[in-house]
Amino acid sequence: MRDTPLSNCERRFLLKAIEEKKRLDGRQTYDYRNIKITFGTDYGCCIVELGRTRVLCQVSCELVPPKDSRPTEGIMFFNLELSPMASPAFEPNRQSELLVMLNRQLERCLRNSKCIDTESLCVVSGEKVWQIRVDVHVLNHDGNLMDAASIAAISALSHFRRPDVAIQGRDITVFSPEERDPIPLSIYHMPICVSFAFFLQGSYLLVDPCEQEERVKDGLLVIAMNKHREICSIQSSGGIMLLKDQVLRCSKIASVKVSEITELINKALENDKKIRKEGGKFGFAESMPKERITTLKREEAPVEMADVKETANEIVNRTETPTEVVSSPVLVAMGTAQVGEGIVNSWGLDEDEEDEPQTEDTKTDDVMVISDSEEEEVVILNEEAQKSTKLSKRK
Amino acid sequence: MAGLELLSDQGYRLDGRKATELRKVQARTSVFAQADGSAYLEQGNTKALAVVYGPHETRGSRSKSLHDRAVINCQFSMATFSTAERKRRPHGDRKSSEMSLHLKQTFEAAVLTELYPRSQIDIYVKILQADGGNYSACVNAATLALVDAGIPMRDYVCACTAGFVEDTPLADLCHAEESGGGTSLALALLPRSGNIALLQMDARLHQDHLDALIEAAMTACKGLSKVLDDVVRQHLEEVSVLTRD
Fold first, then answer.
1. Measured by CB atoms within 10 angstroms of the end CB, which terminus of chain A is less buried, N or C?
2. Which residues of B touch A248 (CB under 8 A)?
């Protein structure tokens, strides 16, 4: 099923709102939606909610032979899936442009920035290494999948624990979690993607675009950074023209956002750790709020009411003032012609009847008609109105 | 890092270039008879071939055509013999489909697509030998091919990579420099307006160095635009001499 296209009205409305620096959900230009991170009962499983965008990430591991080119390094594998569950526009088993872009960006953000120590994942050099598989599933699509996916992936990786192994001679023993405590991955830094959407040929910019905003965007700039203000990847897309200053400005905004989000992830991780230690209840089922109906629920959004009264009055006033006065038909002197307008039909009319519209004309104020005729000029003005009409009658 | 010294104390790189020096660029246009436009470009040891067809009627399903502008269709492929290890799939894997997507986006920004509603422009690019800077070689070759096909563009699109070693930005990375795991930035620029059509960066770089790196890549792109312009002018001269009679 193809996505329902956005109507021109909606498009114009959204763009107008962006021009006026207003967003549908009452956010400011650089505001993120509410981010909520919940961890599952298993290690390495988390759901990230970014507004109504919802992404599930699961990390798993297995022992595999390493790549020939890198015999002492573990393997990181990333896979992001867009299931038709998330949006009617997503088709199963299709490599759409969006999917390719998201997958590659996730890979470049997390693998190429070397945020995870892959050498510590080596068990026996050249024979056995850990392969860490990161599966990201999009559960609901309400824009900005990239940021949600990157937050989910890095939180799940930090939460994940792999089984401990022991090597004795040629034997490799993998211990179950009951025998030995599983080991967390060593993570050097946490890269997080921040998306900037550009509108109207790059003159307006929004952070964390929602689905509707994404539809009217011209282009996207994704910057991945960590809290040490290091840029891990930059990707522009969508055929927009950027200027260097814009990129630098975006990187500054990104660094602020990233430090906020990193703090949030750390807090969520700590929270989960504490609850597990205390033996409290954890997992998705526990962290879901106990509400029956979830689909019809709407978050409260602040609506700007500051100058509503004034603007409303203004609009009312504007509509009351008559729109441009369309000059009512003016009869010019007999026998004269007007280019373009044509002469008024006088067939089958008595002279008295013919005069009527003319007298009406003289009543309307501020009407000045200059006829195009070469023979004479009939000027209808307030004072001379009567005279001129008489003149024209005589003729 | 494999212990390679990317920048010597004297300020020379692995292949003997200075930090801001580009590799030798050689190019020819109109290398194919069938295509509307074509170009062959060598940037150091990276060799790229680009072919342009169009603008023509939209192929395949009608629903793909746009009512207000032309669709740009790009296909990137790498010859099986282009890399040290023989490639199994010349195109269709994640990396090449990403590259096709990037090329498409770059040229959507640069070509005046609104002049050809309901039509399609095909750009096929093939890397014959890969030695770093594949994306930039492809963009430069495709620009020449588009000029050769007579498709109106806002400006030349010039692309170049840049790296960052020991506080020095390096322009136009070769394969050894690129695979070292250091920072690499690919940038496609419209030199006259200074607009960036595509920007892509990998690996870690501190925010404060970003400005210098982008500046280095932009300078390199401006240098490339002169070379491309010369190639086009020289080709035109040759053609005008041949067709004078």
1. N
2. 210-211, 214
pLDDT per residue as tens digits for the range A245-262: 999 999 999 999 999 999
Is a pLDDT exceeding 60 seen at residue A41?
Answer: yes
CB B135: neighbour CB atoms within 10 A?
24
Q: Which chain A residues contact residue B188 at CB under 8 A?
A: none
Are A100 and B97 a contacting pair at CB < 8 A?
yes
Kindly provide the ipTM of the predicted complex, given to two decimals: 0.89
Cα B130 from Cα B95, distance rounded (Å):
14
Nearest CB partner across the interface for B207, out of A113, A231, A237: A231
Assigned CATH topology for domain A8-287: Ribosomal Protein S5; domain 2 (3.30.230)
Report pTM: 0.80
How far is B93 from chain A, CA to nearest CA, in Å?
A: 10
Best A73, A106, A189, A234 member to test B by mutation, with max B CBs in 10 Å, is A234
Q: What are the CB-based long-range contacts (under 8 Å, 24+) for A43-48? A: A43/A159, A43/A160, A43/A161, A43/A182, A44/A156, A44/A157, A44/A159, A44/A160, A44/A161, A45/A156, A45/A159, A46/A152, A46/A155, A46/A156, A46/A159, A47/A139, A47/A152, A47/A284, A48/A148, A48/A151, A48/A152, A48/A155
- The pLDDT value recorded for residue A362 is 46
Record: contact A112-B203, CB cut-off 8 A:
yes
Q: Please enumerate residues of A whose Cβ is less than 8 A from a Cβ of B.
A: 95, 97, 100-101, 103-104, 108, 112-114, 221, 225-226, 228-244, 247-248, 251-252, 255
Report, as an integer, the average pLDDT of A168-188: 89
Question: What angle (nearest 5°) sits at the alpha carbon of residue A149, between those of residues A16 and A94?
Answer: 90
Helices (H), chain B: 94-110, 134-149, 175-179, 210-242
How many helices and strands, by DSSP H and E, does chain B display?
4, 9
The strand pair at A204-207 and B37-43 is best described as unpaired
Domain assignments of chain B as residue spans, ordered by start: 25-243
**Chain A nearest-CA residue for B93:** A100
The per-residue pLDDT for B1 is: 44
Q: Give me the CATH topology for the region B25-243.
A: Ribosomal Protein S5; domain 2 (3.30.230)
Residue B165 has pLDDT above 90, yes or no: no
Spatial separation of the C-alpha atoms in residues B190 and B222, rounded to whole Å: 9
Can you tell me the mean pLDDT for B11-15?
Answer: 87
Q: Does B128 touch chain A (CB under 8 A)?
A: no
CB atoms within 10 A of CB B139: 33
Mean pLDDT is lowest, of A16-30, A133-147, B33-47, for A16-30
Q: What's the pLDDT tens digit per position in B115-145?
A: 999 999 999 999 999 998 999 999 999 999 9
Q: Is A294 helix (H, G, I), strand (E, B) or coil?
A: coil
Which of A108-117, A381-390, B89-98 has the least mean pLDDT?
A381-390
Q: Is the pLDDT of residue A290 over 80?
A: no
**Residue of B196, B187, B109, B193 whose CA lies nearest to B153:** B109
Stretch(es) of chain A classified as CATH 3.30.230.70:
8-287
Beta bridge partners of B202: A233, B184
Question: Which candidate in A99, A119, A194, A237 is best for mutational testing of the B interface (most B CBs within 10 A)?
Answer: A237
Structure tokens at B209: 């160095």
Q: In the structure, what pLDDT confidence band is assigned to residue A298 with cuts at 50, 70 and 90?
A: low
Q: For A329-346, how does the pLDDT look when each residue is reduced to its tens digit (9 = 90+)?
A: 665 566 655 556 566 666
Q: Which pair of structure tokens corresponds to residue B184?
A: 């690499």
